[in-house]
Amino acid sequence: MAALEPMTIGQAAETDKTEKYSVPGLERGLRILAEFSRQTPTLTAPDLARRLQVPRTTVFRLLVTLENLGFVERLNNGRDYQLGTAVLRLGFEYLASLSITDLSRPILERLRNETGYSSNLVIRDARDIVYVQKVAPSSVFSSSVHIGTRLPAHATVLGRVLLSHHTLGQLQQLYPEEHLQAHGPNTPGTVHDLFRLLQTDKSRGYVLEEGFFESNISTIAAPVFDDTGKVTAALGLTVPAVHIPDTDRDILVAKVVSAARELSMSLNARNI
Questions:
Q1: Contact of 95 with 86, CB cutoff 8 Å
Q2: Same-domain check for residues 31 and 164
Q3: Which residues are within 8 A (CB) of 62 and not within 5 positions of it... i.e. 6 or more apart?
Q4: I need a surface site. Which of 74, 189, 240, 259 has the fewest CB within 10 A?
Q5: Domain limits at 32?
Q6: Is the residue at 46 inside a domain?
Q7: CATH code, 216
Q8: pLDDT tens digit string along 216-225?
Q9: How many CB atoms neighbour CB 41 within 10 A?
Q10: Predicted local distance difference test score (pLDDT) of residue 113
Q11: Residue 78 — left, alpha, or beta (φ > 0 → left; ψ -120 to 50 → alpha)?
């Protein structure tokens, strides 16, 4: 792996300035909220102190403050905490503030109606993808994915679309580790493996994979561009099958690419 470029004097000065004006208590409080996830929906004060490597008394004071504001809730056993409704309220307010979610809704609904499959819109948050819009058909198939679901970008089809225009240097900054975390047999092993895969995705203009992240799910996805020409979201179609029939592949790909292009045009995208 190529070495990362050293920090410049200007970058170092900016870092010093940022640290000077940062608020440690607020940072720790936000880090506490970030520790809760689908894998760890409940945590105790000792758990958080160990994870954040701060004194238990500090964690306890922060938890009391967050609890008073509704950002965490204490369970009946008195020891475990979970995220509170205030976090949910902020999340929905954030999603509502994104014009792209409103613009995408009718496009996703039409895609769902024309194909009979779930259509989704995701954005990237650091190394995760976040589902911000979903339109599902009325069927017996029940997906565990919902609005707000987070999945690893490097290991998912939608994530590959969001990363497809990254340079190798940008990917190395995002994934400085030697080996990428595996989420199945198809996960790229290194950042160089990921970059090679993304280059192919970029030249193709869409991604179609069968069983890439989940063995029984096939996905078709295409990039959505903003008015600066950057990939701002990924629009995808979820097919609950190990294999997409050959007779349907080209039709479904065309519909997904067309839907992504329509949404990009709604965002005044350039050069699409």
A1: no
A2: no
A3: 25, 28, 29, 32
A4: 189
A5: 22-88
A6: yes
A7: 3.30.450.40
A8: 999 999 999 9
A9: 11
A10: 96
A11: left
Quick one: DSSP state of residue 146? Answer: -
∠ CA(218), CA(41), CA(173), 5° rounding? 60
Q: Which residue has the higher pLDDT, 141 or 32?
A: 32
Evaluate whether 262 touches 111 at the Cβ level (below 8 Å).
no
Question: How many structural domains compose the chain?
Answer: 2
Same domain, residue pair 133 and 239:
yes
Residue 97 binned pLDDT confidence (cut-offs 50, 70, 90): low
- Listed residue (65, 63, 1, 64) closest to 35, CA to CA: 63
C-alpha R_g of the chain: 21
pLDDT, tens digit, 9 for 90 and up, residues 99-137: 888 889 999 999 999 999 999 999 999 999 999 999 998
Residue 143 inside a domain? The answer is: yes
Please say which residue of 88, 110, 130 terminates a domain.
88
- Reported as a single tens digit per residue, the pLDDT across 25-63 is 889 999 999 999 878 899 999 999 999 999 999 999 999
pLDDT of residue 2: 41
Rounded average pLDDT over 176-197: 96
- What long-range pairs does 179-184 form, CB within 8 A, spacing at least 24? 180/154, 180/155, 181/152, 181/154, 181/155, 182/155, 183/152, 183/155, 183/213, 184/155, 184/212, 184/213, 184/214, 184/215
Instruction: List, in sequence order, the alpha helices (H) in the chain.
Output: 9-21, 24-35, 45-52, 56-68, 85-97, 99-115, 157-163, 168-174, 191-204, 246-266
Q: Taking 60 as the threshold, does the pLDDT of residue 5 lie above it?
A: no
pTM: 0.69
Q: Is the pLDDT of residue 227 over 90?
A: no
Q: Which of 109, 123, 120, 117 is nearest to 146 (CA)?
A: 120
Q: Are residues 257 and 140 in the same domain?
A: yes
